[in-house]
Amino acid sequence: MNQSIPKNYSLNLPIHHDTYLIDGKIGKWKGDFTDVISTLLASNEEDQYTILGDSPKMDEKHALLALDAADKAYSNGTGVWPTMKVYERINCMQKFVDLMVLKREEVVKLLMWEIGKNLKDSQKEFDRTVDYINDTIKEYKKIDRDGAFFHNNSGVRALIRRGPLGVVLCLGPYNYPLNETFALLIPAIIMGNTAIFKPAKHGVLLIAPLLEAFQKSFPPGVVNIVFGRGREIATPIMKTGKINVLALIGHSSSAISLQDLHPQKNRLRLVLGLEAKNPAIIMDDADLELTVNECVNGSLSYNGQRCTAIKVIYVHEKIKDKFLTKFCEEIDSLKLGLPWENTLLTPLPEPNKPKYISDLIDDATSKGAHIINKNGGKKTKNFVFPAVLYPVNKEMNVYKEEQFGPVIPIISFSDIKIPIKFMAESSYGQQVSLFGNSEEKLGPIIDSLVNLVCRVNLNSSCQRGPDVYPFTGRKDSAVATLSVHDALRSFSIRTFVASKDNPTNKGILRKLIDNKKSNFVRTDYYL
Ligand code: G3H
Protein backbone atom coordinates (compact mmCIF):
# COMPACT_ATOMS: atom_id res chain seq x y z
CA MET A 1 0.00 0.00 0.00
CA ASN A 2 2.76 2.41 0.89
CA GLN A 3 4.42 2.18 -2.52
CA SER A 4 2.69 5.18 -4.03
CA ILE A 5 2.74 7.17 -0.79
CA PRO A 6 5.62 9.63 -0.37
CA LYS A 7 7.99 8.31 2.28
CA ASN A 8 7.44 11.30 4.59
CA TYR A 9 3.74 10.63 4.76
CA SER A 10 3.57 6.87 4.99
CA LEU A 11 2.67 5.22 8.27
CA ASN A 12 3.92 2.06 9.92
CA LEU A 13 0.72 0.07 10.07
CA PRO A 14 -1.12 -1.12 11.99
CA ILE A 15 -1.10 1.40 14.81
CA HIS A 16 -2.30 -0.41 17.91
CA HIS A 17 -3.34 2.37 20.21
CA ASP A 18 -4.15 0.87 23.59
CA THR A 19 -3.64 3.67 26.11
CA TYR A 20 -5.83 6.14 27.96
CA LEU A 21 -5.28 8.74 30.66
CA ILE A 22 -7.19 8.53 33.93
CA ASP A 23 -6.18 10.11 37.23
CA GLY A 24 -2.70 10.98 36.01
CA LYS A 25 -1.90 7.43 34.93
CA ILE A 26 -1.53 6.18 31.40
CA GLY A 27 -3.47 2.95 31.50
CA LYS A 28 -3.29 0.04 29.08
CA TRP A 29 -6.65 -0.98 27.69
CA LYS A 30 -7.38 -4.70 27.74
CA GLY A 31 -10.99 -4.73 26.57
CA ASP A 32 -12.57 -4.39 23.12
CA PHE A 33 -11.08 -2.29 20.36
CA THR A 34 -12.52 -0.42 17.38
CA ASP A 35 -10.80 -0.46 14.01
CA VAL A 36 -9.65 2.92 12.78
CA ILE A 37 -10.01 3.17 9.03
CA SER A 38 -8.93 5.60 6.38
CA THR A 39 -10.94 6.12 3.21
CA LEU A 40 -8.04 7.82 1.40
CA LEU A 41 -7.08 5.00 -0.95
CA ALA A 42 -10.51 3.52 -1.60
CA SER A 43 -11.75 5.29 -4.70
CA ASN A 44 -13.11 2.26 -6.58
CA GLU A 45 -16.10 0.39 -5.27
CA GLU A 46 -14.04 -2.79 -4.92
CA ASP A 47 -11.23 -1.07 -2.98
CA GLN A 48 -11.02 -1.78 0.74
CA TYR A 49 -10.65 1.01 3.27
CA THR A 50 -7.19 1.06 4.83
CA ILE A 51 -7.15 -0.21 8.37
CA LEU A 52 -4.85 2.23 10.14
CA GLY A 53 -5.04 0.30 13.37
CA ASP A 54 -7.33 0.23 16.34
CA SER A 55 -8.27 2.23 19.38
CA PRO A 56 -9.85 1.36 22.76
CA LYS A 57 -13.61 0.89 22.87
CA MET A 58 -13.84 1.83 26.52
CA ASP A 59 -16.80 1.04 28.70
CA GLU A 60 -19.07 2.63 31.29
CA LYS A 61 -16.86 1.47 34.16
CA HIS A 62 -13.86 3.38 32.80
CA ALA A 63 -15.97 6.39 31.85
CA LEU A 64 -17.02 6.62 35.49
CA LEU A 65 -13.44 6.14 36.69
CA ALA A 66 -12.44 9.11 34.55
CA LEU A 67 -15.32 11.11 36.02
CA ASP A 68 -14.33 10.17 39.56
CA ALA A 69 -10.76 11.28 38.88
CA ALA A 70 -11.92 14.65 37.52
CA ASP A 71 -14.39 15.04 40.38
CA LYS A 72 -11.73 14.24 42.97
CA ALA A 73 -9.23 16.65 41.38
CA TYR A 74 -11.87 19.37 41.54
CA SER A 75 -13.24 18.37 44.96
CA ASN A 76 -16.06 20.90 44.81
CA GLY A 77 -13.54 23.65 44.15
CA THR A 78 -11.27 22.76 47.05
CA GLY A 79 -8.84 20.56 45.08
CA VAL A 80 -5.21 21.41 44.40
CA TRP A 81 -5.91 22.50 40.81
CA PRO A 82 -8.84 24.90 41.32
CA THR A 83 -7.14 26.56 44.30
CA MET A 84 -3.66 26.67 42.79
CA LYS A 85 -1.83 29.94 42.12
CA VAL A 86 -2.60 31.21 38.64
CA TYR A 87 1.04 31.27 37.63
CA GLU A 88 1.41 27.62 38.60
CA ARG A 89 -1.48 26.66 36.35
CA ILE A 90 0.08 28.75 33.60
CA ASN A 91 3.40 26.95 34.09
CA CYS A 92 1.65 23.58 33.65
CA MET A 93 0.07 24.81 30.43
CA GLN A 94 3.39 26.15 29.19
CA LYS A 95 5.00 22.79 29.84
CA PHE A 96 2.20 21.09 27.94
CA VAL A 97 2.55 23.27 24.87
CA ASP A 98 6.34 22.82 24.86
CA LEU A 99 5.85 19.03 24.84
CA MET A 100 3.01 19.19 22.32
CA VAL A 101 5.08 20.92 19.62
CA LEU A 102 7.46 17.96 19.61
CA LYS A 103 4.62 15.82 18.22
CA ARG A 104 3.77 18.07 15.26
CA GLU A 105 4.93 15.78 12.49
CA GLU A 106 3.19 12.71 13.91
CA VAL A 107 -0.09 14.50 14.53
CA VAL A 108 -0.11 16.22 11.12
CA LYS A 109 0.44 12.90 9.37
CA LEU A 110 -2.43 11.29 11.27
CA LEU A 111 -4.70 14.24 10.54
CA MET A 112 -4.16 13.59 6.84
CA TRP A 113 -4.77 9.84 7.08
CA GLU A 114 -7.64 9.85 9.53
CA ILE A 115 -9.71 12.77 8.29
CA GLY A 116 -8.30 13.45 4.83
CA LYS A 117 -7.36 17.07 5.51
CA ASN A 118 -4.73 18.35 3.11
CA LEU A 119 -1.15 18.84 4.29
CA LYS A 120 -1.26 22.64 4.38
CA ASP A 121 -4.49 22.70 6.38
CA SER A 122 -3.34 19.90 8.69
CA GLN A 123 -0.18 21.84 9.49
CA LYS A 124 -2.29 24.95 9.93
CA GLU A 125 -4.59 23.12 12.32
CA PHE A 126 -1.66 22.08 14.48
CA ASP A 127 0.10 25.46 14.42
CA ARG A 128 -3.10 27.35 15.01
CA THR A 129 -3.76 25.21 18.07
CA VAL A 130 -0.31 25.94 19.46
CA ASP A 131 -0.89 29.66 18.84
CA TYR A 132 -4.28 29.35 20.51
CA ILE A 133 -2.70 27.90 23.65
CA ASN A 134 0.00 30.56 23.76
CA ASP A 135 -2.57 33.32 23.22
CA THR A 136 -4.76 31.79 25.93
CA ILE A 137 -1.86 31.97 28.38
CA LYS A 138 -1.31 35.65 27.51
CA GLU A 139 -5.00 36.43 27.83
CA TYR A 140 -5.32 34.64 31.13
CA LYS A 141 -2.48 36.71 32.54
CA LYS A 142 -4.39 39.82 31.46
CA ILE A 143 -7.62 38.64 33.05
CA ASP A 144 -5.74 37.79 36.23
CA ARG A 145 -4.06 41.21 36.25
CA ASP A 146 -7.43 42.95 35.78
CA GLY A 147 -8.69 41.14 38.89
CA ALA A 148 -5.75 42.19 41.03
CA PHE A 149 -7.22 45.29 42.65
CA PHE A 150 -9.84 46.21 45.20
CA HIS A 151 -13.06 47.98 44.29
CA ASN A 152 -14.59 50.14 46.99
CA ASN A 153 -18.24 51.09 46.55
CA SER A 154 -20.88 52.12 49.08
CA GLY A 155 -18.63 51.10 51.94
CA VAL A 156 -17.96 47.61 50.59
CA ARG A 157 -14.51 46.63 49.45
CA ALA A 158 -14.36 43.84 46.85
CA LEU A 159 -11.70 41.81 45.09
CA ILE A 160 -13.39 40.34 42.03
CA ARG A 161 -11.89 37.55 39.97
CA ARG A 162 -13.04 34.73 37.75
CA GLY A 163 -13.25 31.25 39.24
CA PRO A 164 -13.76 27.78 37.73
CA LEU A 165 -17.11 26.05 37.31
CA GLY A 166 -16.29 22.41 38.03
CA VAL A 167 -16.00 19.26 35.97
CA VAL A 168 -16.18 19.70 32.20
CA LEU A 169 -17.15 17.03 29.68
CA CYS A 170 -15.40 17.93 26.49
CA LEU A 171 -16.46 16.50 23.12
CA GLY A 172 -15.02 17.74 19.84
CA PRO A 173 -15.84 17.29 16.15
CA TYR A 174 -14.12 15.13 13.52
CA ASN A 175 -13.41 18.00 11.12
CA TYR A 176 -11.09 19.80 13.56
CA PRO A 177 -10.27 16.97 15.94
CA LEU A 178 -7.31 18.81 17.39
CA ASN A 179 -8.08 22.48 17.10
CA GLU A 180 -11.72 22.66 18.04
CA THR A 181 -11.39 20.16 20.85
CA PHE A 182 -8.43 21.99 22.32
CA ALA A 183 -10.23 25.31 21.87
CA LEU A 184 -12.63 23.91 24.50
CA LEU A 185 -10.27 21.87 26.66
CA ILE A 186 -7.44 24.39 27.07
CA PRO A 187 -9.46 27.37 28.35
CA ALA A 188 -11.51 25.00 30.50
CA ILE A 189 -8.53 23.62 32.38
CA ILE A 190 -6.44 26.77 32.62
CA MET A 191 -9.36 28.44 34.45
CA GLY A 192 -9.12 25.74 37.14
CA ASN A 193 -11.78 23.30 35.95
CA THR A 194 -11.03 19.61 35.53
CA ALA A 195 -12.01 17.68 32.43
CA ILE A 196 -12.92 14.43 30.78
CA PHE A 197 -12.23 14.47 27.10
CA LYS A 198 -13.37 11.97 24.49
CA PRO A 199 -12.19 12.39 20.90
CA ALA A 200 -14.70 12.34 18.03
CA LYS A 201 -15.43 9.28 15.89
CA HIS A 202 -12.75 10.18 13.35
CA GLY A 203 -9.45 11.73 14.35
CA VAL A 204 -8.74 9.44 17.29
CA LEU A 205 -5.23 8.09 16.75
CA LEU A 206 -3.84 11.59 16.47
CA ILE A 207 -4.69 12.27 20.11
CA ALA A 208 -2.65 9.29 21.34
CA PRO A 209 0.79 10.93 20.84
CA LEU A 210 -0.29 13.72 23.18
CA LEU A 211 -1.35 11.60 26.17
CA GLU A 212 2.09 11.67 27.70
CA ALA A 213 2.34 15.45 27.36
CA PHE A 214 -0.94 15.80 29.28
CA GLN A 215 0.22 13.31 31.89
CA LYS A 216 3.55 15.05 32.44
CA SER A 217 2.11 18.56 32.57
CA PHE A 218 -0.96 18.45 34.80
CA PRO A 219 -1.70 17.09 38.27
CA PRO A 220 -3.60 13.76 38.41
CA GLY A 221 -7.24 13.95 37.43
CA VAL A 222 -7.12 17.41 35.83
CA VAL A 223 -7.27 16.01 32.29
CA ASN A 224 -8.71 12.55 31.69
CA ILE A 225 -8.76 11.18 28.17
CA VAL A 226 -10.93 8.23 27.25
CA PHE A 227 -11.73 6.59 23.93
CA GLY A 228 -14.86 4.92 22.67
CA ARG A 229 -18.41 5.61 21.66
CA GLY A 230 -20.43 8.52 22.95
CA ARG A 231 -23.23 6.26 24.07
CA GLU A 232 -20.93 4.18 26.28
CA ILE A 233 -18.80 7.02 27.60
CA ALA A 234 -20.77 10.28 27.66
CA THR A 235 -24.18 8.85 28.57
CA PRO A 236 -23.28 7.33 31.98
CA ILE A 237 -21.16 10.37 32.83
CA MET A 238 -24.01 12.81 32.19
CA LYS A 239 -26.49 10.69 34.13
CA THR A 240 -24.51 11.12 37.35
CA GLY A 241 -25.25 14.86 37.43
CA LYS A 242 -21.60 15.52 38.28
CA ILE A 243 -20.86 17.42 35.09
CA ASN A 244 -20.92 21.19 35.51
CA VAL A 245 -20.12 22.14 31.92
CA LEU A 246 -20.98 20.33 28.71
CA ALA A 247 -18.51 21.60 26.12
CA LEU A 248 -19.40 20.17 22.75
CA ILE A 249 -18.74 21.05 19.16
CA GLY A 250 -20.88 18.83 17.00
CA HIS A 251 -24.50 18.12 16.26
CA SER A 252 -27.38 19.67 18.19
CA SER A 253 -29.08 16.29 18.50
CA SER A 254 -26.13 14.99 20.58
CA ALA A 255 -26.08 18.18 22.64
CA ILE A 256 -29.79 17.91 23.41
CA SER A 257 -29.75 14.23 24.30
CA LEU A 258 -26.77 14.72 26.61
CA GLN A 259 -28.36 17.70 28.37
CA ASP A 260 -31.52 15.71 28.83
CA LEU A 261 -29.62 13.06 30.78
CA HIS A 262 -28.46 15.51 33.43
CA PRO A 263 -30.64 15.21 36.54
CA GLN A 264 -30.03 18.82 37.68
CA LYS A 265 -30.16 20.88 34.52
CA ASN A 266 -29.80 24.27 36.19
CA ARG A 267 -26.33 23.26 37.30
CA LEU A 268 -25.26 22.49 33.79
CA ARG A 269 -23.49 25.21 31.84
CA LEU A 270 -23.35 24.79 28.09
CA VAL A 271 -20.59 25.74 25.72
CA LEU A 272 -21.76 24.52 22.32
CA GLY A 273 -20.78 24.96 18.68
CA LEU A 274 -23.50 23.36 16.57
CA GLU A 275 -24.76 23.27 12.99
CA ALA A 276 -24.79 26.25 10.67
CA LYS A 277 -26.12 27.03 7.21
CA ASN A 278 -24.08 30.12 6.40
CA PRO A 279 -25.35 31.87 3.28
CA ALA A 280 -23.49 33.97 0.75
CA ILE A 281 -25.58 36.88 -0.52
CA ILE A 282 -24.34 38.27 -3.81
CA MET A 283 -25.58 41.73 -4.76
CA ASP A 284 -25.84 42.88 -8.39
CA ASP A 285 -22.78 45.13 -8.13
CA ALA A 286 -20.46 42.52 -6.55
CA ASP A 287 -16.92 42.13 -7.91
CA LEU A 288 -17.39 38.93 -9.87
CA GLU A 289 -13.88 37.53 -9.73
CA LEU A 290 -13.44 38.15 -6.03
CA THR A 291 -16.91 36.77 -5.26
CA VAL A 292 -16.36 33.58 -7.22
CA ASN A 293 -13.01 33.04 -5.59
CA GLU A 294 -14.35 33.55 -2.06
CA CYS A 295 -17.42 31.40 -2.74
CA VAL A 296 -15.35 28.50 -4.13
CA ASN A 297 -13.01 28.51 -1.14
CA GLY A 298 -15.77 29.33 1.30
CA SER A 299 -17.97 26.47 0.19
CA LEU A 300 -15.34 23.89 -0.66
CA SER A 301 -12.20 24.16 1.40
CA TYR A 302 -11.86 20.81 3.17
CA ASN A 303 -14.70 19.71 0.86
CA GLY A 304 -17.21 21.90 2.68
CA GLN A 305 -16.77 19.97 5.94
CA ARG A 306 -16.50 23.09 8.07
CA CYS A 307 -19.18 24.52 10.28
CA THR A 308 -18.33 27.94 8.84
CA ALA A 309 -18.54 26.79 5.19
CA ILE A 310 -20.85 28.69 2.85
CA LYS A 311 -23.74 26.24 2.58
CA VAL A 312 -26.21 28.14 0.42
CA ILE A 313 -25.71 30.94 -2.11
CA TYR A 314 -28.27 33.66 -2.86
CA VAL A 315 -27.32 35.49 -6.05
CA HIS A 316 -29.00 38.57 -7.51
CA GLU A 317 -30.88 37.91 -10.77
CA LYS A 318 -28.90 40.59 -12.59
CA ILE A 319 -25.53 38.96 -11.98
CA LYS A 320 -26.76 35.35 -11.77
CA ASP A 321 -25.83 34.14 -15.26
CA LYS A 322 -22.32 35.53 -15.17
CA PHE A 323 -21.78 34.28 -11.62
CA LEU A 324 -23.04 30.77 -12.32
CA THR A 325 -20.93 30.38 -15.46
CA LYS A 326 -17.73 31.50 -13.77
CA PHE A 327 -18.45 29.67 -10.51
CA CYS A 328 -19.10 26.37 -12.32
CA GLU A 329 -15.97 26.80 -14.47
CA GLU A 330 -13.84 27.31 -11.38
CA ILE A 331 -15.38 24.36 -9.57
CA ASP A 332 -14.96 22.03 -12.53
CA SER A 333 -11.29 22.94 -12.66
CA LEU A 334 -10.68 21.88 -9.05
CA LYS A 335 -8.45 18.89 -8.52
CA LEU A 336 -9.14 15.98 -6.23
CA GLY A 337 -6.02 14.55 -4.66
CA LEU A 338 -4.51 12.86 -1.65
CA PRO A 339 -3.87 15.17 1.32
CA TRP A 340 -0.11 15.51 0.72
CA GLU A 341 -0.84 16.71 -2.83
CA ASN A 342 -2.40 19.80 -1.24
CA THR A 343 -5.45 19.89 -3.48
CA LEU A 344 -8.55 21.70 -2.27
CA LEU A 345 -10.60 18.54 -2.70
CA THR A 346 -9.65 15.36 -0.86
CA PRO A 347 -11.45 12.06 -0.14
CA LEU A 348 -14.33 12.24 2.35
CA PRO A 349 -13.39 10.54 5.64
CA GLU A 350 -16.87 9.29 6.54
CA PRO A 351 -17.69 6.12 4.58
CA ASN A 352 -21.40 6.99 4.41
CA LYS A 353 -20.89 10.61 3.28
CA PRO A 354 -20.72 10.04 -0.50
CA LYS A 355 -24.11 8.35 -0.41
CA TYR A 356 -25.59 11.10 1.75
CA ILE A 357 -24.37 13.78 -0.66
CA SER A 358 -25.67 11.83 -3.67
CA ASP A 359 -29.03 11.43 -1.97
CA LEU A 360 -29.20 15.20 -1.42
CA ILE A 361 -28.44 15.74 -5.09
CA ASP A 362 -31.07 13.18 -6.20
CA ASP A 363 -33.67 14.69 -3.90
CA ALA A 364 -33.00 18.19 -5.24
CA THR A 365 -33.03 17.15 -8.89
CA SER A 366 -36.26 15.21 -8.38
CA LYS A 367 -37.81 18.46 -7.09
CA GLY A 368 -36.69 20.65 -9.98
CA ALA A 369 -33.03 21.59 -9.42
CA HIS A 370 -30.32 20.92 -12.02
CA ILE A 371 -26.70 20.05 -11.58
CA ILE A 372 -25.27 22.94 -13.53
CA ASN A 373 -21.55 22.12 -13.53
CA LYS A 374 -20.10 19.49 -15.84
CA ASN A 375 -18.49 17.25 -13.24
CA GLY A 376 -21.02 17.82 -10.47
CA GLY A 377 -22.18 14.71 -8.65
CA LYS A 378 -19.69 12.25 -10.18
CA LYS A 379 -19.31 9.68 -7.48
CA THR A 380 -16.59 7.27 -6.41
CA LYS A 381 -16.46 5.12 -3.28
CA ASN A 382 -14.78 7.86 -1.21
CA PHE A 383 -15.84 11.07 -2.95
CA VAL A 384 -18.53 13.01 -4.78
CA PHE A 385 -17.40 15.79 -7.10
CA PRO A 386 -18.94 19.09 -5.89
CA ALA A 387 -22.36 19.62 -7.42
CA VAL A 388 -23.71 23.11 -8.03
CA LEU A 389 -27.49 22.88 -7.76
CA TYR A 390 -29.80 25.51 -9.28
CA PRO A 391 -32.57 26.55 -8.79
CA VAL A 392 -33.03 25.34 -5.26
CA ASN A 393 -36.21 25.77 -3.26
CA LYS A 394 -37.36 25.27 0.33
CA GLU A 395 -38.78 21.82 -0.34
CA MET A 396 -35.39 20.30 -1.01
CA ASN A 397 -33.40 18.59 1.72
CA VAL A 398 -30.24 20.38 0.62
CA TYR A 399 -31.95 23.65 1.47
CA LYS A 400 -32.91 22.50 4.97
CA GLU A 401 -30.02 20.31 6.06
CA GLU A 402 -26.45 21.24 6.88
CA GLN A 403 -24.81 19.26 4.08
CA PHE A 404 -21.26 19.38 5.53
CA GLY A 405 -19.88 18.21 2.20
CA PRO A 406 -19.40 19.02 -1.49
CA VAL A 407 -22.78 20.21 -2.75
CA ILE A 408 -23.72 23.86 -3.21
CA PRO A 409 -27.35 24.94 -3.43
CA ILE A 410 -28.03 28.21 -5.26
CA ILE A 411 -31.11 30.43 -5.16
CA SER A 412 -31.55 33.64 -7.15
CA PHE A 413 -33.35 36.76 -5.93
CA SER A 414 -34.30 40.19 -7.17
CA ASP A 415 -35.46 41.55 -3.82
CA ILE A 416 -33.07 41.44 -0.86
CA LYS A 417 -36.08 40.74 1.37
CA ILE A 418 -36.03 37.15 0.04
CA PRO A 419 -32.64 36.02 1.45
CA ILE A 420 -33.28 38.00 4.61
CA LYS A 421 -36.63 36.29 5.07
CA PHE A 422 -35.06 32.87 4.45
CA MET A 423 -32.38 33.62 7.01
CA ALA A 424 -34.93 34.82 9.53
CA GLU A 425 -36.84 31.56 9.12
CA SER A 426 -33.71 29.40 9.32
CA SER A 427 -32.94 27.43 12.46
CA TYR A 428 -29.35 28.63 12.28
CA GLY A 429 -27.59 31.93 12.75
CA GLN A 430 -23.82 31.68 12.71
CA GLN A 431 -22.39 33.86 9.88
CA VAL A 432 -23.11 35.30 6.45
CA SER A 433 -20.95 36.45 3.54
CA LEU A 434 -22.20 39.60 1.85
CA PHE A 435 -20.79 40.57 -1.54
CA GLY A 436 -21.39 44.03 -3.01
CA ASN A 437 -19.95 47.48 -3.47
CA SER A 438 -22.53 50.17 -2.81
CA GLU A 439 -22.45 51.42 0.75
CA GLU A 440 -25.94 52.78 0.23
CA LYS A 441 -27.31 49.29 -0.43
CA LEU A 442 -25.04 47.45 1.96
CA GLY A 443 -25.63 49.67 5.00
CA PRO A 444 -29.24 48.74 5.79
CA ILE A 445 -28.65 45.09 4.85
CA ILE A 446 -25.74 44.86 7.30
CA ASP A 447 -27.94 46.41 9.98
CA SER A 448 -30.43 43.56 9.59
CA LEU A 449 -27.88 40.79 9.10
CA VAL A 450 -25.94 41.51 12.29
CA ASN A 451 -29.11 40.67 14.18
CA LEU A 452 -29.69 37.44 12.31
CA VAL A 453 -26.19 36.01 12.63
CA CYS A 454 -23.09 36.79 14.70
CA ARG A 455 -20.59 37.69 11.99
CA VAL A 456 -21.16 39.47 8.69
CA ASN A 457 -18.23 38.90 6.34
CA LEU A 458 -18.04 41.69 3.83
CA ASN A 459 -16.72 40.56 0.44
CA SER A 460 -15.11 37.53 2.03
CA SER A 461 -16.00 33.97 2.88
CA CYS A 462 -17.11 32.92 6.35
CA GLN A 463 -14.49 31.70 8.80
CA ARG A 464 -13.81 31.26 12.46
CA GLY A 465 -10.40 32.95 12.60
CA PRO A 466 -8.53 34.87 13.68
CA ASP A 467 -9.20 33.14 16.97
CA VAL A 468 -9.08 36.34 18.97
CA TYR A 469 -12.43 37.29 17.41
CA PRO A 470 -15.71 36.04 18.86
CA PHE A 471 -16.90 32.72 17.46
CA THR A 472 -20.54 32.09 18.24
CA GLY A 473 -23.98 31.90 16.69
CA ARG A 474 -27.67 32.56 17.24
CA LYS A 475 -30.62 30.15 17.41
CA ASP A 476 -29.55 26.50 17.05
CA SER A 477 -25.98 27.32 15.97
CA ALA A 478 -24.23 27.88 19.30
CA VAL A 479 -24.42 28.48 23.01
CA ALA A 480 -21.72 30.75 24.54
CA THR A 481 -18.83 32.43 22.76
CA LEU A 482 -15.39 31.10 21.98
CA SER A 483 -12.69 33.64 21.25
CA VAL A 484 -9.39 33.31 23.09
CA HIS A 485 -10.75 35.81 25.62
CA ASP A 486 -14.43 34.79 25.60
CA ALA A 487 -13.64 31.11 26.07
CA LEU A 488 -11.90 31.94 29.34
CA ARG A 489 -15.06 33.74 30.38
CA SER A 490 -17.34 30.93 29.18
CA PHE A 491 -15.51 28.40 31.36
CA SER A 492 -15.53 30.53 34.50
CA ILE A 493 -17.73 32.61 36.73
CA ARG A 494 -17.17 35.86 38.59
CA THR A 495 -16.57 35.27 42.26
CA PHE A 496 -15.31 37.72 44.86
CA VAL A 497 -14.34 38.52 48.38
CA ALA A 498 -16.25 41.44 49.87
CA SER A 499 -15.78 43.16 53.21
CA LYS A 500 -17.21 46.17 54.98
CA ASP A 501 -14.67 48.92 54.74
CA ASN A 502 -13.58 49.18 58.37
CA PRO A 503 -10.15 49.14 60.07
CA THR A 504 -10.39 45.50 61.19
CA ASN A 505 -11.17 44.16 57.72
CA LYS A 506 -8.63 46.47 56.16
CA GLY A 507 -6.00 45.06 58.53
CA ILE A 508 -6.90 41.47 57.68
CA LEU A 509 -6.76 42.15 53.96
CA ARG A 510 -3.43 43.93 54.33
CA LYS A 511 -1.95 40.94 56.17
CA LEU A 512 -3.46 38.43 53.74
CA ILE A 513 -1.68 40.26 50.94
CA ASP A 514 1.60 41.05 52.68
CA ASN A 515 2.02 37.58 54.12
CA LYS A 516 0.79 35.89 50.90
CA LYS A 517 -1.72 33.78 52.79
CA SER A 518 -4.25 33.43 49.97
CA ASN A 519 -3.95 32.51 46.30
CA PHE A 520 -7.15 34.47 45.64
CA VAL A 521 -6.72 37.57 47.80
CA ARG A 522 -3.60 39.09 46.32
CA THR A 523 -2.77 42.14 44.32
CA ASP A 524 0.34 40.92 42.55
CA TYR A 525 0.17 39.45 39.09
CA TYR A 526 2.17 37.29 36.73
CA LEU A 527 4.19 39.21 34.13
O1 G3H B 1 -15.98 23.60 11.70
C1 G3H B 1 -16.00 24.76 12.10
C2 G3H B 1 -14.75 25.51 12.37
O2 G3H B 1 -14.80 26.25 13.54
C3 G3H B 1 -14.43 26.39 11.24
O3 G3H B 1 -13.25 27.02 11.43
O4 G3H B 1 -13.51 28.77 9.70
O5 G3H B 1 -11.30 28.25 10.66
O6 G3H B 1 -12.42 26.62 9.14
P1 G3H B 1 -12.58 27.69 10.15
Strand line-up in the sheet with most strands: 15-18-19-14-13-21-22
C-alpha termini separation: 52 Å
Instruction: Please work out how many helical segments DSSP would assign.
Output: 17
- Going by helix content, strand content and strand pairing, the class is alpha/beta
How would the global form be characterised? globular
Mean pLDDT: 97
Binned, the helix content reads 25-40%
Q: Mind telling me the C-alpha Rg?
A: 25 Å
Identify every distinct bound molecule in the structure, by name, code or SMILES.
glyceraldehyde-3-phosphate
* Low-confidence region ranges: none
Beta-strand portion reads 15-25%
What's the story with the biggest beta sheet?
A: 7 strands, mixed
Number of strands: 25
